[in-house]
Amino acid sequence: MSELKQKIWNDIQQVREISPLVLNITNYVVMNNTANALLAAGASPIMANAPEEIEDMVALCAATVINIGTLNAATVESMKLALKKADQLGKPSVFDPVGAGATTYRNRTAEELLDIAFPTFIRGNAGEIMTLAGTSVASKGVDSTVGSAGSEKSAKSLAKAHQCVVSVSGETDIITDGTHIAYIDNGDQLMCRVTGLGCTASAILGAFAAVQSNRFMAAISAAAFMGVCGEIAARESLGPGSLQLNLYDVMHTLTERQFTETVRVRGK
Amino acid sequence: MSELKQKIWNDIQQVREISPLVLNITNYVVMNNTANALLAAGASPIMANAPEEIEDMVALCAATVINIGTLNAATVESMKLALKKADQLGKPSVFDPVGAGATTYRNRTAEELLDIAFPTFIRGNAGEIMTLAGTSVASKGVDSTVGSAGSEKSAKSLAKAHQCVVSVSGETDIITDGTHIAYIDNGDQLMCRVTGLGCTASAILGAFAAVQSNRFMAAISAAAFMGVCGEIAARESLGPGSLQLNLYDVMHTLTERQFTETVRVRGK
Amino acid sequence: MSELKQKIWNDIQQVREISPLVLNITNYVVMNNTANALLAAGASPIMANAPEEIEDMVALCAATVINIGTLNAATVESMKLALKKADQLGKPSVFDPVGAGATTYRNRTAEELLDIAFPTFIRGNAGEIMTLAGTSVASKGVDSTVGSAGSEKSAKSLAKAHQCVVSVSGETDIITDGTHIAYIDNGDQLMCRVTGLGCTASAILGAFAAVQSNRFMAAISAAAFMGVCGEIAARESLGPGSLQLNLYDVMHTLTERQFTETVRVRGK
Question: Which secondary-structure segment (H or E) carries C196?
């Protein structure tokens, strides 16, 4: 297991050294925060979303992240063009189906995107992953009403059906390629009181996907980095305001020792 | 008066316990901040704005907040659909006429929205409320050139004309249903140096409207919560950067004792 | 040189006293941050971007800032209307060609805007300025692959060609009207790890352009204010999260003594 920790730490260092360009077609709520998280982790964010240039941007970047949080007709068009282009170029893509299950429009858009091309990764909370896997689940807007533990079967079947790696965030993060499975037990309850940290996890996954070609490993490293930084940041935070700020600081300053002492990862 | 303080505190606790879903069709400047303020207060924000799904979102949520800060053709269409749907379902709605008085387009849109359906609440600064009430007032963009004190008559007539509760923010907040009136003397001058705290007050009002069916009481509780948290946060802030952060922390951690010692509310 | 420092400090005080209205048609990533930076500096931000009202807003404001970070068809239309109106009214305008060089759409849009009217100021990083000047340069998305030092010749030729003042941000900021040149040696490397501080510098330039009619002087004062505040803020920051917060606080509280002791400006 200490070998796995070493591998994850290597990926964290790779993001810092290579500073990959990560394209984010994301929602208006978190644009600033995901850009800042990518910068704090050492990557370089691009936040363009116009259909006129999105294919050029996919070609320029090392990974593409698609997030439907505040989807609209124009950005959905860009998402489709981007997903197709990334697939054609063999570049990694992350799909974050924010709020899947909440409305018909959201579900239909998620389906249409998955019909264009399989993304390399799908990352969401338990409710979103279960909705995509066709499991019936009560939705509470963009937050999940079910814990991540109950989504393991859905995550596996979704990964198999779309030949991708699925990452489910929650009290325990679950990562699966349909066959293998890994669990991350980091993070802090206070993270639910900062908007868009799930979206941040998706953006960070884009950065790790850009430097680690083993996609199962990339998803483990991204979730571990996010969980460890969130957990350390929460320790010294009075509330959600200081947590957001501390998260960027910790992402920027995280040392190998801090990481190794804090990370709790296991597989089966 | 200590009975009123107790009632307000009960509403604050209700928001934390019920964690109502609040839909925000709001401007791009404050999306992140209003979502974070709602989370810090204990509520659950939804920030969708596509016409294709907005009625489903209104039906899913306990309250709807409409804010024209960065209005455009697409979001105005969503605002109209949302206001009509909320009215049909008998769900509370908040209208924040940001920058009313600054341009013809802004004034015309505000009128069109009020023609669709009367919102449950109108919340703005003195200049915006006076503009909507038909009182001539010099506009300085989105900030008010007049103090809240001068807007009392306009607020009352606007509340009567649209059968709603009007909440005016300023050095003293004024809340009126056209007959009754209440004043909140909390807050801090530094709050004017953080963008969108008026928008945050509107979002917070959505959360209180979702848990308190007496709408005059809901508006008092929301303004008191906002003012008290802002005032406590400002005490320990070096400038507007720390104030924004501390505001979220205080919203999340506010105790009954802190609240009772700080709130200054009076009625007539 | 101490006379120049005094002149800059006077401009800083003028922004605080006059509190000019600054219109920003900017990208979705930084809307909140540039509004907050303008408020912290003492100015009043307007963030509207609908074509229906943009000319009214230009007329209402003392300066207009145009930033193509997340350009799309609708906002580009507004940018064109705004630039033309500002030119007609003889009001100062700032153009920030974010990501120029990254895509054909971005380059074409920059050209189209410069064909409408010459802005009073063009502010960007070295790569963007060199692209606009027609110098071939490798692009890395929105970040520059070249240092500011290599852009001096391009900046001068761009200023001459468009009869404007060009401000290049980098380790050393370069300001030129095509004939005169000034250098600011403030700032901190950590500023590159906070998203959109270049965009903030453009917004701040709008505020200084509104109070200082000598445009070469306005650009020097704006860059000096930004660099000094960033440098002081970075000293007490653990990482990019605290830097963003401290920057607003320092902008709000900066004293003449702090400014004079920190600023490093030289001309030739």
Answer: none
Global ipTM: 0.95
Q: Which of A185, A171, A155 is nearest to A266 (CA)?
A: A185
- Which parts of chain A fold into alpha helices (H)? 2-18, 31-41, 54-60, 73-89, 104-116, 126-132, 152-161, 197-211, 215-235, 240-253, 256-262
Joined together, the tokens standing for residue C229 give 């505040």
Burial profile C22-33: b = 16 or more Cβ within 10 angstroms, e = fewer:
bbbbbbbbbbbb
pTM: 0.96
Q: Which amino acid is at C205?
A: L
Cβ-based burial of A218 (10 A; exposed 0-12, middle 13-18, buried ≥19): buried
Q: Distance between CA A119 and CA A124 in Å, rounded?
A: 13
Q: What average pLDDT score do residues A182-189 get?
A: 98
**Mean pLDDT score of chain A:** 95
Burial label for A16, CB within 10 Å (0-12, 13-18, 19+), is: middle
Closest CA to C265 of C205, C203, C177, C175: C175
Distance from CA of C71 to the nearest CA of B (A): 14
C244:A36 CB<8 A: yes
**C132 within 8 A of C88, measured Cβ to Cβ:** no
Q: Is B244 on the interface with C (CB under 8 A)?
A: yes
Q: Using pLDDT thresholds of 50, 70 and 90, give the confidence band for residue A133.
A: very high
CB atoms within 10 A of CB C264: 16
**Average predicted confidence (pLDDT) for chain B:** 95
Q: Is residue A62 within 8 angstroms of chain C, CB to CB?
A: no
Q: What band does C264 get if pLDDT is binned at 50, 70 and 90?
A: very high
- Residue in C231, C207, C229 with CA at minimum distance from that of residue C219: C207
* Nearest CA-CA partner of C143 in C155, C125, C130, C159: C125
| Host H or E run for residue C63 | strand C63-67
pLDDT digits (tens, 9 = 90+) for A152-167: 999 999 999 999 999 9
**Domains defined for chain A, CATH in brackets:** 3-267 (3.40.1190.20)
Q: Compute the average pLDDT of residues B197-221.
A: 98
What is the rounded CA–CA span in Å between residue A35 and residue A40?
A: 9
Contact C195 A39 (CB under 8 A): yes
Band (pLDDT 50/70/90 cuts) for residue B150 is confident
Q: What confidence category does residue A60 fall into, taking pLDDT thresholds of 50, 70 and 90? A: very high
Query: Exposed (0-12), middle (13-18) or buried (19+): which is C90, by Cβ within 10 Å?
Result: exposed
Pairing of strands C139-140, C143-144: antiparallel
Which one of B26, B27, B46 makes the best mutation probe of the A interface by having the most chain A beta carbons within 10 Å? Answer: B46
φ, ψ for residue B265, nearest 5 deg: -125, 140
Q: How confident is the model at residue B79 (pLDDT cuts 50, 70, 90)?
A: very high
Q: Verify whether the Cβ–Cβ distance B60 to A103 is below 8 Å.
A: yes
Judge whether residue C80 has pLDDT over 70.
yes
With CB atoms and an 8 Å threshold, state whether C36 touches B194.
Answer: yes
Helices (H), chain B: 2-18, 31-41, 51-60, 73-89, 104-116, 126-132, 152-161, 197-211, 215-235, 240-253, 256-262
Q: Which residues of A touch C98 (CB under 8 A)?
A: none
